[in-house]
Automatic annotation (TrEMBL):
Region (Disordered): 350-371
Organism the protein comes from: Mesopusillimonas faecipullorum
UniProt-recorded name of the protein: Glycosyltransferase family 9 protein
Pfam families per record: Glyco_transf_9
Keywords: Glycosyltransferase, Transferase
């Protein structure tokens, strides 16, 4: 992480960005955070209401000056405006971008006399417009992050920042990469990430359906290995996948591991392809420019970068409407699963015919034995 102060003791960065929601929501916005840091020529401050354990991923980015945790302030409803206002004054923040809108954050920024308060207002809440100095308008219902790449650029331009998101938007910390190196298969270029996680059960593809996808891809392209990505909340899904697959499928299951977020991200960044639910895992893969299939059943489909290929349910609001065959067809159409992909992987890749590929050795440590 960059030093907080210049040699004379003055804070270098007076621009801060506030993002709430899940970790995936933060990751989704990091392309713009990186672009803004490059535009102003110095690392930025991030204000995050997430648990301290998640800060390592963002603290490790060269374009982030520091991460200030707001978890306790968020919980203290009675005093949070006053406490956040004091914090903003103490940090000498003069520009605050609200990539997520919370009224108390905007109120605190106004009370702290932050000169530029930039964000969005919902059409049905025009009375809140006075809290922001630069604003855009978004739809009434739901979180606006699926539309971020529509509403955010015009707001930034009004502030003098004509930027486009920068990718890859996340850097892998060298220490984290070294920590997971021994977990990789012999040929990591043939690894497919399988994103099991999701903020709620209705956003998760079933273990049996994922197993069908993995088994058919393995039969058609036997050189592939598969990373089961997620935490302990989806360990049962990982177990169901393992139970359905033959022993010759190379699996790395981290759902019951003790990897921290930086280490999990470093392992995911080694994948050449990704298939997963609308979740943090999917947005991490996209941040690393990994060609990815997003499974959208309970949430609206997104396609905010050209290397994201959405598969949408045929049954409204249900993951059951996503057939394994639809996922496989999308993978064969957009992923170059032949051996040539290992030497020249590009975000947009033509489909290649099925072939017989050389097998990879099982991964050490975290492999089928973890299932």
């Amino acid at each position: 992480m960059a030093e907080n102060t210049a040699p004379d003791g003055v804070l270098r960065s007076r621009m801060a960005i506030y993002i709430s929601g899940g970790i995936g929501d933060v990751v989704l916005h990091m392309g713009y955070v990186r672009a803004l840091a490059q535009e102003v020529g110095e690392p930025l401050t991030m204000l995050l209401p997430h648990a301290q354990a998640t800060h390592c991923l963002f603290d490790s980015q060269s374009y982030i000056d520091r991460v200030i945790g707001l978890e306790d302030i968020h919980k203290d409803r009675k005093h949070r405006v006053a406490h956040l206002s004091e914090l903003l004054r103490a940090q000498q923040i003069d520009t605050l971008f609200l990539f997520s809108f919370h009224r108390f954050v905007a109120q605190a920024a106004k009370r702290a006399r932050v000169a530029r308060r930039v964000g969005f207002i919902r059409y049905h809440q025009p009375h809140l417009a006075r809290l922001l100095t630069h604003r855009g308008w978004v739809r009434r219902r739901g979180t606006p992050h699926p539309d971020t790449h529509t509403w955010l650029p015009p707001i930034l331009r009004r502030c003098g920042y004509d930027v486009t998101p920068v990718y890859p938007s996340l850097e892998v910390a060298p220490a984290a990469r070294d920590q997971v190196r021994e977990l990789l298969p012999a040929d990591a270029s043939r690894m497919v990430g399988i994103g099991l996680n999701g903020s709620s059960a209705d956003k998760r593809y079933s273990g049996e359906a994922f197993a069908l996808v993995i088994q058919q891809l393995h039969q058609r392209f036997p050189g592939l290995s598969f990373l089961l990505f997620g935490a302990s909340d989806v360990a049962d899904t990982a177990s169901a996948i393992c139970a359905c697959l033959p022993s010759d499928v190379s699996l790395i299951n981290i759902t019951q591991s003790k990897l921290n977020l930086c280490e999990s991200d470093a392992l995911l960044a080694e994948c050449s392809y990704f298939i997963g639910n609308d979740s943090m895992g999917l947005h991490l893969a996209l941040a690393h420019q990994i060609p990815s299939i997003g499974l959208f059943g309970a949430t609206p489909p997104m396609s905010y970068v050209p290397w994201l290929y959405p598969v949408v349910t045929t049954i409204p609001s249900s993951m059951d409407g996503i057939s394994p065959q639809a996922v496989i067809d999308t993978a064969c159409r957009h992923f170059q699963l032949g051996l040539a992909a290992a030497s020249a992987l590009q975000p947009e890749l033509p489909a290649s015919p099925a072939g017989s590929l050389s097998s990879v050795e099982p991964a050490s440590r975290l492999e089928r034995s973890a299932c």
